[in-house]
Every structure is written in structure tokens, then in C-alpha cells.
Design a protein that fits this description.
This protein is of the alpha/beta class. It has 2 domains: 123 residues, P-loop containing nucleotide triphosphate hydrolases (Rossmann fold); 71 residues, Rossmann fold (3-Layer(aba) Sandwich). The protein contains 11 helices and 5 strands; from the N terminus they run βαβααααααββαααβα. The protein has a 5-stranded parallel sheet. The longest helix has 27 residues. GO terms for molecular function: ATP binding; dephospho-CoA kinase activity. It catalyses: 3'-dephospho-CoA + ATP = ADP + CoA + H(+). Belongs to the CoaE family.
């Protein structure tokens, strides 16, 4: 899905891994702004295309015994409703073990590009569809897209402004180790798979440095919102 229409009311949020993008997005939501989250869309698209991805990357990325909401909730009732003769039609859909998939794609650029070729067009289409719906509100809204620049930048997402959430490397590493329990080599692979943070900063309209407390970040976000003003009258 392509659009020649500029997303005049959209502000893209991006940054490096563990820079605080998701936290910033939650603050914007708490302050009453709509946020389209690329990661949430990506997770849905991943599961919707699980069979294709498992075929491309191997059975090792499939979760074993994926949950079935019907059978897990009450197996006795489900057996009565779905007798063995119909069992084949009730087989649960495969799901992806994202951790195992991550190990593969972050260790091999060609495989990462293959995954992106499957997912990115579908993610892009859904983000644009949701964004075009929000344009009619004539209010600021945000596109939380971690790989905004890597996936095409303004050429693919013609937003009004780009906001990068930045942090120092030490804080970034501490957050990733605490949040994701990754090995140092795995963290390095993920960082190297993205555009360097300084390049993102240079290509952005605004930058918020997130190296302090949650309250500090909220204060900076409130200052940012005051600076851009009303959507139809505010100018950088």
C-alpha cells in the first residue's frame, strides 16, 4: 500500500534498541494522544504468516504444542463439542518462537532481509491504513516505528515530523541486559542490525534524550508537546 498523501498530523517515534521508545509512546497515550505501534502490528503479522515463516526458517522456530484457547479452557467440554471425527479441522495454528527466530535472523543478514521481505510490506500497509484513518481527526498522533529509517523513512511513511528517543550506550546496554536477558554478543548483533543512533539523530526533526528518570522523560515530552503546539497551527 502506497500513499501520495502526506501524513500531516503524524509524528514518527524512533530510536535505538532500549532507548525508551515504548515508554515514550505510553506517556503520549497517557497524555491523550493516539499511538500506532509498529511492534504490536508486527507481532500480529508474524503470527498471521506463521506457516510461511516456519517454511522459510525451519521447524525449530515453531512453538511446541501451541496453545488452543478452546481445548485449554475446558478440555472435557471441548471434546463433547468437537468429537474426534472432526479433530483435524480443530488443529491449532502454529505460532512462532520469536526468541529462536531472533537468534537466526540477527546472526545472518541474508535471513534477516528474507524475514523483512515477508513482513515489512504487510506491516507498512497496516500502519498506513490506520494512519489515514487518524488523519481526519486533525490532531497529532504518533507512529511508534523502531525501524523507521531502516524500513524506508519518509519515503515510505510521509510523516510531518520525526522524533528520535536517544540514550547513552551504557544505559542502553544495561536496559537490554535487564529486559531481554541476552548475551553480550546477541546484544551487539541487534545493535549492529540497526542504523547508528547518531545517524538517526541527524536525520530527525526532534530529539529527546532519555537518560534520567521516568519523571524526567515525561517532563521532556510535555515540553516537546508545548513546543510543537496545535497540530494545524504549530510549526517547528
Amino acid at each position: 500500500m502506497k500513499t501520495s498523501q502526506t501524513l500531516q498530523h503524524a509524528i514518527a517515534i524512533t530510536g535505538a534498541i532500549a532507548s525508551g521508545k515504548s515508554t515514550a509512546s505510553k506517556i503520549f497515550e497517557l497524555l491523550g494522544y493516539r499511538v500506532i505501534c509498529a511492534d504490536s502490528i508486527a507481532h500480529r503479522v508474524l503470527e498471521q504468516n506463521a506457516k510461511e515463516i516456519i517454511n522459510a526458517f525451519g521447524a525449530q522456530i515453531a512453538n511446541q504444542n501451541p496453545p488452543n484457547p478452546q481445548t485449554d479452557a475446558n478440555p472435557d467440554i471441548n471434546l463433547a463439542l468437537n468429537p474426534p471425527a472432526n479433530q483435524a479441522s480443530q488443529e491449532p495454528q502454529p505460532t512462532i518462537n520469536r526468541k529462536e527466530l531472533g537468534k537466526i535472523v540477527f546472526a545472518d543478514e541474508r535471513k534477516r532481509k528474507l524475514l523483512e521481505s515477508i513482513l515489512h510490506p504487510k506491516i507498512h500497509a497496516q500502519i498506513l491504513s490506520k494512519a489515514l484513518e487518524l488523519e481526519s481527526s486533525h490532531q497529532w498522533y504518533f507512529l511508534d516505528i523502531p525501524l523507521f529509517f531502516e524500513s524506508g523513512g519518509r519515503e515510505r511513511y510521509p510523516v510531518r515530523y520525526v522524533l528520535t528517543i536517544a540514550t547513552d550506550e551504557r544505559t542502553q546496554l544495561e536496559r537490554v541486559m535487564k529486559r531481554d536477558a541476552l548475551k553480550p554478543c546477541e546484544i551487539e548483533q541487534r545493535i549492529n542490525a540497526q542504523m547508528p543512533l547518531q545517524e538517526k539523530i541527524n536525520a530527525s526533526d526532534f530529539v529527546i534524550h532519555n537518560g534520567g528518570t521516568l519523571q524526567d522523560l515525561q517532563h521532556k515530552i510535555e515540553e516537546f508537546l508545548a513546543m510543537i503546539g496545535d497540530c494545524d497551527t504549530g510549526n517547528k
